[in-house]
From TrEMBL:
Pfam families: Lar_N (PF09861). InterPro entries: LarA-like, LarA-like_C, LarA-like_N. It comes from Mangrovactinospora gilvigrisea. This is LarA-like N-terminal domain-containing protein. Residues 15-168 form the LarA-like N-terminal domain. PANTHER family: LAR_N DOMAIN-CONTAINING PROTEIN (PTHR33171), LARA-LIKE N-TERMINAL DOMAIN-CONTAINING PROTEIN (PTHR33171:SF17). GO terms for molecular function: lactate racemase activity.
Length: 403
């Protein structure tokens, strides 16, 4: 990995420059400590400064002890490299880079949206001479595959691009876009916004083993779009599992790195494509006790609904952040809503077996199971019965094999 990092500066263009490294928070798997040490060792001797910004999007900030675990180094061991949280809740965090025009948004979205979008980004990205994106690539429910310029938007951006891009993904639906290779409409919007960034940029995109996140299948360096494209192609072969038939019941076991439904719902997104019509996903996560630390009140207000619940009655949700509505539809999955009758018909059932009380689950439109009554092992080896157990859900996408 040290060689990969050094290769990014083969021409010595970082000599005397200030370098900012964008990294994920700890809801993404990967050997970040080893990768970050390699980047530090390769760049610190030649650069004027090398610092790290955690691309939180709108996730809660990471406290010092979690940063130490996440980077595998104490503050003293990281020196002179500093680590910063993306302070998305502070208006002074952001610099305005310009606008993606309504006409451009309409062209990118195929007419699904038409509005001007101001591009505001953490001003640290602008203040540094070079920005290195250092992060993994997985199938993703909003953009197709994660990584690349997504570390800017939503990683270190303000709400405008976050809300528009996530709502565009919701309009297309997670069911359609997740695991789609190439430049999806959401990826095109993100790339367009990233084209306004004045700083020099590069990437080290990596692909990890689904069984052992400390094992790398590939590291791709260079220009962000090119490095991401190569990593996404590899991820499509590593992180997509094909099955021959849909399942009536899926027990999705959510690992501890997802500590709220906002991120733990990846255990729904990645499995929805292999659930039969009328089937059920049971999200098993006894450690999760809330929908979202940041967005929980909005979620309790609007609940979880299919896309058309929001799309066909927009006046009722004009004050709701579209990123929250997008999350709602991704969790609830595909389905229909008839405004004439008020009938909503989700394609599948989503049941939470978590630490969230039954009354709260049912109030937002989801099912409930007491996690103490779930015997995980009783779901194993029952694929012929239409039952699937996924022991570590959230990063591998399950799809039906065609033909």
């Amino acid at each position: 990995m040290r060689q990969h990092a050094a290769d990014l500066d083969a021409a010595g263009r970082l000599a005397g420059k200030r370098v900012l490294v964008l990294v994920p928070d700890d809801t993404r798997s990967g050997p970040l400590p080893a990768l970050l040490r390699a980047v530090r060792d390769a760049f610190v001797p030649r650069a004027a400064a090398v610092d790290v910004l955690i691309a939180l999007g709108t996730h809660p900030p990471m406290p010092p002890e979690r940063i130490d675990r996440h980077t595998g180094m104490t503050e003293a061991e990281r020196a002179p490299m500093r680590v910063f949280n993306h302070e998305w809740e502070r208006p002074e965090t952001f610099a305005s880079l310009g606008t993606v025009t309504a006409d451009e948004v309409a062209e990118i979205s195929g007419g699904l949206l038409r509005e001007d979008v101001e591009v505001r980004l953490n001003r640290m990205v602008v203040d540094y001479d070079h920005v290195l994106v250092l992060g993994p690539v997985f199938p993703h429910e909003v953009v197709g595959f994660s990584g690349g310029n997504k570390y800017f938007f939503p990683g270190v951006s303000a709400r405008e691009v976050i809300d528009v891009s996530h709502w565009l993904g919701a309009l297309i639906t997670s069911y359609e876009i997740i695991g789609t290779l190439g430049t999806t409409p959401v990826r095109a919007l993100i790339n367009k916004a990233a084209s306004l960034i004045p700083s020099d940029r590069s990437a080290l995109c990596y692909v990890v083993s689904p069984k052992d996140p400390t094992t790398l299948h590939g590291v791709f360096g260079g220009g962000i779009e090119e490095a991401w494209e190569r990593a996404a192609e590899l991820s499509s072969r590593i992180h997509v599992a094909y099955v021959d038939r849909p399942f009536d019941t899926v027990l999705s076991v959510v690992p501890a790195m997802y500590d709220e439904i906002w991120v733990g719902a990846k255990g729904v997104y990645k499995l929805e494509p292999v659930v039969a019509d009328g089937g059920e996903i049971i999200l098993y996560a006894p450690h999760i006790t809330e929908f979202s630390e940041v967005h929980g009140e909005w979620i309790k207000k609007i609940g979880f609904h299919v896309r058309d619940w929001f799309r066909l009655q927009p006046e009722k949700f004009a004050d709701v952040p579209r990123g929250v509505m997008a999350h709602s539809t991704h969790v609830r999955g595909a389905g229909t809503y008839d405004p004439a009758t008020g009938e909503e018909r989700p394609r599948i059932r989503v049941t939470l077996a978590t630490g969230i009380p039954e009354a709260e689950c049912r109030a937002v439109g989801l099912g409930y199971r007491d996690p103490a009554t779930v015997d995980v092992e009783s779901y194993a080896g029952r694929e012929d019965e239409g039952v699937l157990l996924v022991r570590k859900a959230g990063e591998t996408l399950y799809r039906l094999r065609k033909g």
